[in-house]
């Protein structure tokens, strides 16, 4: 699958709780994003002049046909603040799909999807594709946020019959604490019952580091979709270096990732 650069039109800008917004985007004709799979991303840029030259990277939330796709975001900086203000009919320049995706479902293995904050999109996409393939019973979602408002698109999980477990720092939904508070007992249960599970995770780096420690301690296979600042998406700027084990001390999130085997990432 080859990435391409193309123009899209904003079809909808849906405001969600917790400051999140969902952009539904459409191209005039078929694009390679139609073949995108969970974990891949696009680079987006509006007509922002010289103030913001670089596009912003976003995981693909869904790609329902050969023209349309959607992203979920939250305004953290100037680029996302401007994206939050776009209106239907506005146009954006897109490059994608880019990056290495999550592995596909494996026979006899139950996938535990672990999402934190804006790390939800690739795992939501994975759950959607599992539902479309009739595999909803083979995935479970573990989703954490600061409070109930940080947990979005929950109706989709219910509609897809995906088992969902929540954690919030203030205890307003699910267990009180980080998402690892919900995940750890599930991993221990799988160990006691001899159940084959695999963890697919995306979220803030501290969350991913905590998930990594949990799975390595228990010998559970895991893949982490990392969040790094990306200026190009093609490995040219070298700004998204990830410390790894192996012959080379670093690999790049945009071209070698964003999905990495948890055993590969060189974190404490």
Q: Determine the structural class based on helices, strands and strand pairing.
A: alpha/beta
Low-pLDDT sequence parts? none
Provide the residue-averaged pLDDT: 95
Radius of gyration, taken over Cα atoms and rounded to an integer in Å: 18 Å
Number of helical elements: 5
N-C termini distance: 35 Å
Domain FAD-binding FR-type: 3-104
Family: Belongs to the PyrK family.
Cofactor: [2Fe-2S] cluster
Protein name: Dihydroorotate dehydrogenase electron transfer subunit
Description:
The chain is an alpha/beta fold. Helices cover 20% and strands 32% of the residues. The chain contains 5 helices and 15 strands. The protein has a 7-stranded mixed β-sheet, sandwiched between helices. α3 links the parallel β8 (139-145) and β9 (163-168). The longest helix is centred in the last third of the chain and has 14 residues, at 180-193. The chain is globular.
């Amino acid at each position: 699958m080859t990435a391409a650069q193309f123009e899209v039109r904003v079809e909808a800008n849906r405001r969600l709780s917790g400051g999140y917004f969902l952009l539904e985007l459409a191209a005039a004709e078929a694009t390679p994003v139609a073949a995108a799979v969970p974990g891949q991303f696009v680079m987006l840029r509006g007509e922002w002049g010289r103030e913001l030259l670089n596009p912003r990277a976003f995981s693909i939330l869904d790609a329902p046909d050969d023209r349309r796709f959607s992203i979920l975001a939250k305004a953290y900086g100037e680029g996302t603040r401007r994206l939050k203000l776009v209106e239907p009919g506005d146009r954006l320049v897109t490059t994608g799909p880019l990056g290495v995706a999550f592995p596909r479902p494996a026979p006899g293995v139950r996938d535990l999807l672990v999402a934190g904050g804006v790390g939800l999109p690739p795992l939501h996409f994975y759950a959607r594709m599992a539902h479309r393939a009739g595999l909803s019973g083979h995935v479970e979602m573990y989703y954490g946020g600061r409070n109930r408002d940080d947990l979005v698109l929950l109706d989709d999980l219910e509609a897809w019959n995906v088992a969902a477990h929540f954690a919030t720092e203030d205890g307003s939904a699910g267990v009180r604490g980080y998402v690892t508070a919900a995940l750890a007992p599930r991993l221990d249960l799988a160990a006691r019952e001899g159940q084959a599970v695999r963890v697919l995770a995306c979220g803030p780096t501290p969350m991913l580091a905590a998930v990594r420690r949990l799975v390595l301690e228990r010998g559970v296979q895991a893949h982490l979709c990392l969040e790094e600042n990306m200026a190009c998406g093609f490995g040219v700027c070298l700004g998204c270096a990830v410390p790894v084990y192996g012959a080379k001390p670093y690999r790049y999130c945009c071209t070698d990732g964003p999905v990495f085997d948890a055993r590969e990432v060189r974190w404490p």
